[in-house]
Write a structure and sequence with these properties.
The protein is α/β, with parallel strands linked by helices. It has a single domain, classed as Metallo-beta-lactamase, Chain A (4-Layer Sandwich). The strands form three sheets. Strands 1-4-5-7-8-9 form a six-stranded mixed beta sheet. The chain is globular, with a radius of gyration of 18 Å. It has seven helices and 15 strands. This is Metallo-beta-lactamase domain-containing protein.
């Protein structure tokens, strides 16, 4: 399960966390042995990755749009009744703290198009967008306003600037992951096919130093650390789910959680979940957030 060793003059990525709103999650919906029906305010984290050589600026996930009331009515209903949100600062605000704007971002990669990750794409009018190939399946039934019952708006992705990463690419195994795509072709940043949670769900594996450190951004592969450490299993049957669980395919989701558990055994790999409340509570207002960066292991 080893990861590729660094090459001579190995390029890498610095990684900075970005505030991108908060979502209130009822843990009974995600882990089988949650203590109560209490909802917990969790971050919806985004990240800025900057390449050490080509200087490309890459944002992973856009969090929650600040004007969430302008989302499709079905999504607004959910944010009012099931997943309440709080956005004191969005991705654009977070970039501004380090002197950047959406115009400076070369690539936006969306782990999946749920509202707490897809943000508001029109703000990034010059960026290339990257999503998993199976994201197309979610858009084909029709999107809002053409389909009034869709959770996804017509501007969720810019069609002329979006790459759907499908089977035409050269996917290769890396560590415990069967399908990884070397985005820059230099071993600095891999997009990981991460099925289970939603069609097109992807994760990131980034090299964060020239001598062997990594970060794994797990998005919604797991919503709570108990699922990764094995002290809980995925909850089933909660009425707040669109599916029987928080994941579209529970079996595939469990396999992905096991893969994350395996990559954590590799030396110098840091794993962060999209709704990683423990990590957020430890690092908020510190150097891990832009204009600072997350320290390598």
């Amino acid at each position: 399960m080893a990861l590729p060793p660094p090459a001579d003059d190995q390029p890498y990525c610095s990684v900075s966390a970005l505030e991108a709103g908060h979502i209130y999650l009822n843990m009974k919906m995600f882990i089988d042995n949650a203590a109560s029906e209490e909802t917990i305010r969790t971050p919806s984290l985004s990240f800025l990755l900057q390449h050490s050589v080509n200087k490309k600026k890459f944002v992973f996930d856009l969090g929650i749009r600040k004007d969430w009331e302008n989302s499709p009515p079905k999504a607004v209903e959910w944010m009012r009744t099931v997943y309440k949100v709080d956005i004191p600062q969005d991705v654009s605000d977070s970039l501004a703290k380090g002197g950047l704007s959406p115009r400076d971002i070369d690539t936006v990669c969306i782990s999946h198009i749920h509202f707490d990750h897809s943000g508001h794409a029109p703000l990034f009018g010059h960026s290339e967008f990257i999503v998993g190939g199976d994201t197309r399946q979610l858009l084909e039934p029709g999107i809002y306003p053409h389909n009034p019952n869709s959770f996804f708006s017509a501007d969720i992705l810019p069609p002329e600037r979006t790459r759907f990463l499908g089977d035409e690419l050269h996917w290769q195994p890396i560590g415990p992951f069967p399908r990884a795509y070397d985005l820059y072709g230099d071993g600095s940043l891999y997009i990981i096919d991460a099925p289970g949670h939603l069609s097109g769900h992807i994760n990131l594996l980034a090299r964060t130093s020239p001598d062997g450190a990594w970060i794994y951004l797990a998005a919604d592969t797991a919503h709570h650390w108990n699922l990764v450490n094995g002290s809980s299993v995925i909850a089933c049957g909660h009425p707040g789910h669109l599916h029987d669980t928080a994941h579209m395919d529970k079996e595939l989701a469990e396999k992905m959680i096991n893969r994350v558990r395996e990559v954590m055994k590799v030396p110098r790999v840091k794993v962060i979940l999209a709704h990683d409340k423990p990590w957020y509570d430890e690092n908020k207002d510190k150097d891990a957030f832009f204009p600072g960066k997350i320290n390598s292991l």
